[in-house]
Amino acid sequence: MGAELGRISGPLLASNLIRNEIDLAFENDLIYFKVDGSPNNVGIKTDAPTTDLYVNGSVRSQYLIVNTGGTYNFGNFSVYSNTIQHLSGKIYVQPDQSTDPVIQITGVIQTPTLQINDNNFDAVGDDEDITLNTTGTGKVTVNSNLFVDGIIHSTGDITLDGNIILGNETTDLIDINAEVDSDIMPKKIEGGTLATENGNLYITEDNVELLSSNVNLPTYNLGSPLKQWKSINSNTVTFVKSRFSDIELYQNSIYSTNTNQNLILDPNGTGAITVQNIQFSANVISNSAATPSNNNEASILFKPLGTGIVNVDAVSSLKLPVGPTGALQERGQIRFNSTKNRFRGYVPDNQTVSLTQLYNVQENTYIIPEATENAGDNTFYFYVEDDLKATLTTTTFTSDRFELGGIRFQNNNITGVTTDFKFNPTTNTVLGDVYIDTNTIGALNTNPLTINSTARGYVKFSGQKGIVLPFGTTAERPVNPENGQYRYNTDISNPLDPEPKPIGGEVWSSEQNKWVTMGGSGGLVNEEEAFAGMTAWALTFNL
What we know:
There is one protein chain. This protein is an all-beta fold and about 550 residues long. The protein is about 5% helix and about 25% strand. Among the domains are: about 425-450, no CATH class; about 455-540, no CATH class. The strands form 12 sheets. Strands 26-27-28-29-30 form a 5-stranded antiparallel sheet, with no helix packed on it. Residues about 1-5, about 10-15, about 25-30, about 205-215 and about 520-525 have low confidence and may be disordered.
């Protein structure tokens, strides 16, 4: 018996087509039955079914139970035991996105290496990883707290916004084995973060504000007194204020925080401390300029402020440079001349002068403090054109010729150089015990003022107006007169004068031991008295 084909379509399938009291309701759909033959398939909306039931369209069922005991292919899906597999691509599970966009799974979702159970993601098997991958610029977002009870490993960048807390106990350790290729910034202040520009401290945000040096900035500790970093290796370290043991650095200053202690900068081995072009090595300060273009750049300059001075505070000595003649080049230079064995200084117009003694530029006119080195004779020697002209000791100035103003002292003469010699002191002129006051010559003591001549010389009083001799009363006569001492006694009158006047010269006669009146006793002078008086008076002047 051959295969039977049945085809029911069109108006034949009416609503009154009932089988076993059930309305088949085929209406106008095409149903194709391959009743007999191989394979025996049923096709709906197709006349070439390839499976037992092939529906060329949609199938809707309240319950669909498949129990084949093997693999069932449903479209591009393969269903086997507890496995659903898409035969050519991905499997999409998509709920109603508008009314109930939730996929709820009760139980465990498991892949060969990953298991999802409630809110746990567990790896399946031993030493298996769980990998979260995104595509392109996508990222894995965790919108809540993330707790890791283990180790976090990243081969890429880690960007953390907000606060970062590493560890919750002082015993926790942080190991950083990789490089840090970014800035580590402190807490933001006043809407910005701290930054530096050209050595100045700024707050960076919409407005850049320069902070003054006395602004109190928030500070945070790196380490503690009991837990310290062993080494910090950095290309550049910028601090507002930093402290290293007893050393503090602030702005452009280095301080010692240990009261009354020294600040020591000590290089290693034979190294030196170089500050710009000044080098400090052991107890030597030198200029380290590589290629100085002039003497000033090759020099070491000590420059005090304002009226300050350069003070070498020591009780020993200051050693100056030593060199031969001709090495000085600039005004104010000073050194020891090893050629001439004396200290030398440099003055303008290419002139070098001695500082040990007073020398002229040619060094042939000079003053030296001793005849030979270490002689200790306490004498100044004055040389003019290498010829000794004068000496000065503690008591005597000696010279063959000395001129002071217009007065010349030479040998035993005092003369005027160009005019008459004039002596005009402000008080008296004193020569021994004799003083000269204006036009008065007097004695400074009770000894007589003697005018003496030698041999047959004499004392001469020139002029036409006369000589004024000493005068006084009888009571004012000297107590111990010398022979020939003459005076005018105002108590004696000349009896021959028609108008008696107080005139009367008298002279002391040692031979008569009395004062003899030059006018004679009783007004007339006898020959004996006159001779005695004149003799005594002449003896007074050594005539």
